[in-house]
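Session log. Operator J.P. requested a structure for one protein chain; no other inputs attached. Running the standard single-chain path with token output.
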Amino acid sequence: MTPGARWRPILVVTGALALLATATGRAAPPAAAACARPAWVAAWAAAPRSAGAPISGVTVRQVLHLHGGGSAVRLRLSNRFGTRPLRLDHVTVGISAAPALASSPTGWRFVASPVVPATRREVRFGGRPAVTIATGADRVSDRVDLVTSGSNDVVVSFFSRDTTPALTMLAGSAQANSGWVSSPGDHTADDAATTFGTSPAGWSVVSAVDVLPAVPSGLVVAFGDSLTEGYGSTPDANHRYPDILADRLAEASGGDYWAVNAGISANRLVPVAGFTEKVQGGPPGVQRFAADALAQSGVTDVLLVEGVNDVIISTPVAEVINAYRDVVKKAHARGVRVIAGTLPPSGDLVSGDPLHRGSAPTEQGRAALNDWIRRSGAFDGVVDFDAAVRDPSSPGHWRVGLSIDGLHPNDFGYRVMAEAVDLSLFRGPRCR
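Structure written below.
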């Protein structure tokens, strides 16, 4: 499909054909009843990674870039790594104005974004402005009437009067200016950003923003490690491969289909005994897949690119393959398709190798996994990222100009990855 092409209609499979799709292990398209009216779709997401610091009597403001829009929004808040219930006394959301700049000893830097006047809305939970999120749980807000588009950044501010547990921190490589902490007090109703400090605090608590599109839509969840999270791309530029893929999908579908990012740097698919979330890069992929991929509102497809961090630490290839089979089984049980990406080269791996195994054993494991991904038929489709970025004359290495370190892409490398994706692999917008 060419980037500007409209999406082809998707046939709705019912009756015997739907049973056949289920019997073969493939995810069946949505039933006609699911197409009766538009439904919530995640327009921004980030994966909960680990516990951070608590806050007390201050407001946190965060800027989140949407990939789709609609007539209303709702927020998903996470206390997944909290050690006790998290109470927030006030939460607001609005459209972000252009971020401001401030001088510092090292030069100019972004400061917290103001809110476009008249777009700020109070967020409620069961009709109330305050919410208590249970330990280890997520909570979804009520509907908030706020018109958004795929080009909007939204500002979410939350305040807690008392000392909170450790806030759940989210993956956010390539996002240097994403969250700020205010001077003491409830500043959720401030359109201006003058009470917020100049030191970014990272994304926390808000793990997804859902929108209510005018027509039934679909969603690709990009799931993986640092290659998905966007390590090495230009900060605050939305140059990760899922960002670029989201733009391609939205253009091809007329704005009815896009992608969100569920990558965590250093993440592994297979659990490793003795590794904490911070060392391991969040919960293992097989454990977080349901919450971070299948629980995203409106998900129709998952693009899975993960496994190289497993072979770096000598996880047997057979265990990684079993993990692949496990996530596919979980997805198909929910009617979600899984597209797998082959793993790009790691032949230059030197730093970031915690067990100092060197690149040769990692390359052997990577090659074995890629061969299985291409040949097994276990997935609903395959994107050959390896072929797109490798050096033809030295296949264990990235092409010159695409990588920052021989393992992670630069901006151009992420674009090459995104443009290697054949959009016809995905189901497309629901009910179209």
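Operator note: Residues 16-33+215-425 form a domain with the Rossmann fold fold (CATH 3.40.50.1110).
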